[in-house]
């Protein structure tokens, strides 16, 4: 899976977010990713 669910919140790595083009909301939620 590209993303994992933590506390009912779908978070992805920065790289995966870019690949999926999910949007800034997911990017901001991605651990280790700043702005």
Question: Helical region count?
Answer: 2
Question: What is Rg?
Answer: 9 Å
End-to-end gap: 23 Å
Sequence stretches where pLDDT stays below 50 over 5 or more residues = none
Order of helices and strands: EEHH
Report on the architecture of this protein.
The chain is an alpha+beta fold and 35 residues long. Helix content is 37%, strand content 23%. The longest helix has 7 residues, at 14-20. The radius of gyration is 9 Å and the shape is globular.
Short description, anyone?
By secondary structure, the protein is of the alpha+beta class. It has 2 helices and 2 strands.
Relevant terms:
35 residues; alpha+beta; two-stranded antiparallel ribbon; 37% helix
What is the element layout, followed by pairings?
Layout: E1 3-6, E2 9-12, H1 14-20, H2 24-29
Antiparallel strand pairs: 1-2
């Amino acid at each position: 899976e590209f993303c994992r669910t933590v506390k009912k919140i779908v978070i992805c790595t920065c790289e995966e977010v870019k690949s999926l083009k999910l949007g800034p909301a997911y990017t901001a939620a991605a651990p280790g990713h700043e702005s």
